[in-house]
Amino acid sequence: MMVGMMLWRPAKALFAVNATFKPLEVAFYCLLRFCLDQNKGNMIVHKIIFILGNLGAIALAIYKVHTMGLLPNTPSDWLEFIPQPQRVQYSIVSNIYT
């Protein structure tokens, strides 16, 4: 549950970057109730740092899932999809002991 939320929250935040920064952009553009169009700042650096932080949180969650052994990254995890080898020799069992 915790690892799932560790993956879900940053992914959800990445899809809502503009909605997250909308109140900050309004406050940044209209600082002290004095709005000037030529004083519009650039929030792109802050958004990039926000995105990098969330990507780091997702990477940490994937690392945690890997250390728990839940990621199928070894050949033994995929044995179900490997075709069975063909028999070279057949033997017949008799009913001699019944």
From TrEMBL:
Keyword terms, alphabetized: Endoplasmic reticulum, Membrane, Transmembrane, Transmembrane helix
Domain of life: Eukaryota
TM regions (residue ranges): 43-63
Annotated compartments: Endoplasmic reticulum membrane
Single GO cellular component term: endoplasmic reticulum membrane
Pfam families xref list: EMC4 (PF06417)
Membrane topology, record value: Multi-pass membrane protein
Family: Belongs to the EMC4 family.
Subunit relationships: Component of the ER membrane protein complex (EMC).
PANTHER family in the record: ER MEMBRANE PROTEIN COMPLEX SUBUNIT 4 (PTHR19315)
Record-given protein name: ER membrane protein complex subunit 4
The organism of origin for this protein: Strongylus vulgaris
